[in-house]
Amino acid sequence: MRELLRSPAGLVGTCLLLLVGAMMVLGPLLAPYDPQSFHPRARLQGPSLAHLLGTDQFGRDLLSRLLHGARNTVAFGLGATALGVIIGSIIGVTAGVIGGWIDSAIMRVLDGLLAVPDLLFTLLIVTMLGAGMGYAMLAVSVAFTPGMARIARSAVLSIRTREYVLAAIARGESWGWIIGREVLPNAIGPIVVEATIRVSFAMMIGATLGFLGLGAQPPSTEWGLMVAEARQFMFRSPWCVAVPGVAIALAALGFNLFGDALRDSFDPRRRLR
Amino acid sequence: MSADTDTSALDVQGYSLRYRSADGQFDALKSIDLTVRRGRTLGLVGESGSGKTSLAWAIMRYLPANLQELSGTLLLAGEDLRTKTTRQILEIRGARVSMVFQDPSTSLNPIMRLGDQLAEVLIRHRGLSARAAFEEGTALLARTGIRSPAEMMRRYPHQASGGEKQRVVIATAIACNPDLIIFDEPTTALDIVTARQILDLFTTLREETGVAALYISHDLGLVSRIAHEVAVIHQGEIVEHGPCAEVFRAPRRAYTRALLAAVPDPAHRIGTPPPDPATPPLLTLANINVRYGELPWLLRLLRPGQAVVQGARNVSFDVRPGELVGVVGESGSGKSTIAKVLAGLQEFSGSVTFAGQRYQGRRAFDRAYRHAVQIVFQNPDASLNPRQTVATILSRPLKLYGTVPPLRIPARIAELLARVRLPAQFATRYPHQLSGGEKQRVAIARAFAAEPKLVICDEITSSLDVSVQASVAELLVELQRETGTACVFITHDLNLVRQLAHRIAVMQHGELVDLFDTADATLPDRAAYTRTLLDAVPTLARIENGVVP
Amino acid sequence: MTPGYLARRLAAVLLVLLVVSFAVFAITMILPGNAAVMILGEYATPDQLAAVSERLGLNRPWSVQYLDWLGGMFRGDWGMSLRLSLPVAGLIASAFANSAMLAATALVTVTVIAIPLGIAAAVKRGTRADLAIGLLAYIGTSMPEFVTATLLIVFLAGPESGLFPAGGFVSPLEDFWGFVAHVMLPAGTLSLVLTAHIARQTRSEMADVLASDYVRAARLKGLAEPAVLRRHALPNALAPTIAVISLDIGYLLGGIIVVEEIFAWPGLGRLLIYALENRDLPVIMGVTLVLAMVYATSNLISDLVIAIIDPRVRYA
After folding, report:
1. What is the three-class DSSP state of C209?
2. Is the omega angle on the peptide bond into residue A219 within 30 degrees of 0, that is, cis?
């Protein structure tokens, strides 16, 4: 952990994540206004003492909406990634451990699915399931599965041939011990790193879906949807689009920086650079 | 040698170098004094971390930013390299002082033709045209003993063997008739026979060109064969410096004596007394065959172009209880394949008979076999799980095979550590907190924790420093003496195996080409390949017989 | 390059496309409501539905339908759009050309900017320039396209500044400068994230190469730094960088969907969103397959280019 905070990227990333975490946990408590209440006389205002980040087209307080929306947007990213990582890791670890023709067949199918861009994949699944946060989350996690499976598999393959794993096999250890105690603790690093970076992608895709009207539905405070709703008024009041837009970018930046710092702390060779 | 022998090619005086990092600083080189005279070879011998490579970088003026020069002069043919400008250094590097690296497979640019990499120096320093450089390069390659040099010039590194690549690197180093060539372990990455050829090439070229050489190595036996003078470096200090014959015959410092004592000497046997030849064998391998890369038909469609490689072909030999059989060969000879077969890590055809039980195929090995046969791997960094403590590592075989009651496990771990001469408090440490030799002792303890009848040692000394190698080998023999365990000792180090083994099996291209009692190693009726291997290995003994170069 | 290598790569591409086509087909089969419902609307009588299903062959087993559809794709018969009543092939062809212009502009911009940036960052490792490039890269990879696009429109296409049109498309054959004006913002949006990513990857590849033994050997031959970079470092960093670019084309294709929608660019992305909103199955399937084909082909091309650069691959 100290290693993480030593690099500037790790420090900034950790701070951003702490900020995002605080918004998720305490956001609704800290919000000065009800995020849904209209203030017709204070529409599309810039920042002021009454409204620190201004108001939107209905006079709703942007700061309050932002604080409430953190849960939607970030939890979406975390949830979708977690699901994708779990499914993907199970597939990847299975393929890597079993090997042989099953591995080859799984990998060829995954190669095919990887040829479909993540966003397109998500759009197809959302269309199939229907719009809404829950389905969108499922769609993103399914779209992430092939990529995560690949990474999990290669992590397993690189560890499977390590001599301590060979030693365990030679000793006659059970598969449970070999996978659970010898392979996984050492394979988890790259998986965690990739997952952290992917949270930022998932958040961005989730916000994009909200923006396209396929994810969160009004009057949700999801940040992507906030951008979409304010787009009509963006020339009159750039604040309305800039505030949620920058919030998405900062949250994503936090996960990106943190993930990279995590990778460096796992890889001493990189740390030396 | 000619009359200018007394002028020096390289003269290092009072040179000190300090290494700084976030965790502090330490002195990599402490007031080094060294002289390499013209036409002479100085062998610089040291273990890893001794500072021998730092000195090479200092002479090449290629120091990373966290190294700080404290004092001293580096005179190349009388000129102080430390006072040269960057531009002047560029003129000197590759022309007046050049370097041959340890591993030719990484020191050559993989996507550039070998000829272009050689010609580059000639164009840069001797101002030749591209055409003239190609011709000169071809001539240089011919001098390094490459048979069709013009064709080699047009090849890429991956199309040449390790020995051929190292010849190209050497040709590049001599291309501009330098004052000094630094050889940084130039044979370590090569096979025994290839290494021998490169060494012969080195001595030939030295005679022809009269170039001065600084030969860096960890191998005293090797240095004793090629160097005129030797300097022993230990923890950044030159502890001994003098003519080769003198230093080797009468070392003045304890460290040098310890190093010399650690060099395996086949005449000095440390193995256990041979078992009775009449006892029935414990292990019998019959017609073991291993083929790599063989795929079922469906996979062949999915992964076409994968070649089938024969890892072992009809290998048969046996091991008696308490016996140590050495398996020797170069890389790719199939010796490690045999280790994997015996450890149940590699599918095979043929049969393994152990303690009266016959096993055909990897899956046939049962719990009893896996309990009685243990393996120790080459690299202790890789064979100990970095996320487990020494206690966890050692407790596994105890729990798995139930060799001691659960309550006795901590006491047993302490016993095991004591037997491999490690302090008991190591139990709570993680592998990365131990040195290479200590890790290998833990790995050996793990194998003996199972109370096996047979231990497979797959190159267990080759990733260790010379002095550590000897102590690990002695430890193994001692454990063998105490427990009566048999051992299959796989190695490329013929000198070491002749000290330890009762019988030696020689492998080449997956086949067992020779099998003999250790005492008969030098008999004239040995297989031709065995004799080639024996001839290729540098031993210290020769120098005592007066065969100084 | 051996013919075997080429054949292997081609076979892999075909396999990928087969998997994609099947996945796409499977998704359309699972979709609630079949094509007949979509044509007739929710209030159709069962008799009408049965008749249309019969005509479209929806009652046949799915395997027959799949093979029939796949065969049609090979013959160039991509079906009719359910909403627009136009042949899918024609719709896709014109949209493809428009998307290609946008993607090519973005890709060229990215390549010209990102690779030199990455190399500069690796060579000047640890300096302020390196830090600035790194920061830029992080910000670029953390901005979703719709945010970048919206911000670009607000600041560069608003009523006050009005530097660029906020959307729309002009064919370069009719009005080249009009095309340039219209392509600037969408291509800029797409370029930002890709530039960031490719610059970062190039930096890391280049840093690996610069730390390699053969670059050190080249320096110790007395070559000056520019020669070391030109002759030894750059050629070795090029192949992995090309691989990264080809992988990023997948990202570009995803970005194009959003960007075209925002900037009203009449390409594949916009067509796809339209088809998704209207559940126009033949169009959805066609566009998805084309996008996957583009991606697979670009990977193939990058493999071939790498094989030309790297003799180890070429003679494999």
Report:
1. helix
2. yes
Q: What is the CA radius of gyration of chain C?
A: 24
| Contact indicator for A229, A218 with CB cutoff of 8 Å | yes
C23·A252 Cβ contact <8 A: no
Q: What is the dihedral of CA C27, C29, C31, C37, to 10 degrees?
A: 150
H or E stretch covering A51? none
**E strands, B425-485, in order:** 454-458
Token digits of residue B481: 């003496």
Torsion of CA B463, B467, B471, B472, to 10 degrees: 0
How many other C-beta atoms can be found within 10 angstroms of the C-beta atom of residue A84? Answer: 25
Q: Which residue of B has its CA nearest to C309?
A: B111
Helices C176-210 and C145-156 sit at what angle, rounded to 10 degrees? 130
CB contact set of A270 (below 8 Å; sequence gap of 6+): A263, A264
User: Do B188 and B221 meet the contact criterion of CB atoms below 8 Å apart?
Assistant: no
Q: Which of B66, B64, B63, B69 is nearest to B25 (CA)?
A: B66
Chain B adjacent subunits, 3+ CB pairs under 8 A: A, C
Among B371, B374, B384, whose Cβ lies nearest the Cβ of A164?
B384
Please report the DSSP string for B196-250 in residue order. HHHHHHHHHHHHHH--EEEEEES-HHHHHHH-SEEEEEETTEEEEEEEHHHHHHS
Residue B363 half-sphere exposure toward CB, CA atoms < 13 A: 0
Model pTM above 0.90 = no
Q: Of all helices (H) and strands (E), which one includes residue B375?
A: strand B373-376
Residue B311 CA to residue B314 CA, distance in Å, equals 10
ipTM higher than the 0.90 cut: no
Interface test with B, best of C15, C16, C220, C232 (most B CBs within 10 A): C220
Task: List phi, psi (to 5°) of B212.
Answer: -85, 145
Q: Nearest CA to CA, how far is A198 from chain B (Å)?
A: 26
SS3 labels along B45-110: ECCCCCCHHHHHHHHCCCCCCCEEEEEEEEEECCEEHHHCCHHHHHHHECCCEEEECCCHHHHCCC
Task: Provide the residue-wise pLDDT of chain C in tens; the chain has 316 residues.
Answer: 567 777 877 888 888 888 888 888 887 777 655 566 666 666 777 787 777 777 777 777 788 888 888 888 888 888 888 778 888 888 999 999 999 999 999 999 999 999 999 999 988 887 888 888 888 888 888 888 888 888 888 888 777 777 788 778 888 888 888 888 888 899 999 999 889 889 988 988 898 899 899 999 999 999 999 999 999 999 999 888 888 888 888 889 889 999 998 898 999 999 999 988 887 888 888 898 899 889 888 888 888 888 888 887 766 5
Structure tokens at C5: 């290598």
User: pLDDT digit string (tens) for B26-37?
Assistant: 888 999 999 999
B361 half-sphere exposure, CB direction, 13 A CA radius: 2
From the list C154, C207, C276, which residue is nearest A234 (CB)?
Answer: C154
Cα C222 to Cα C219: distance, rounded to the nearest angstrom: 5
The residue to which tokens 């031993």 are assigned: B539
Contact C143 A120 (CB under 8 A): no
Is residue B35 helix, strand or coil? strand
Residues 6+ apart with CB under 8 A from C145: A208, C189, C190, C193, C255, C258, C259, C262
* Spatial distance between the Cα atoms of B30 and B72, rounded to a whole number of angstroms: 10
Sheet holding B79-80, edge to edge: B24-37, B8-21, B67-76, B79-80
**Amino acid symbol at B237:** E
CB C289 within 8 A of CB C17: yes
Which ranges of C31-57 would DSSP assign to H, the alpha helix? 35-40, 46-56
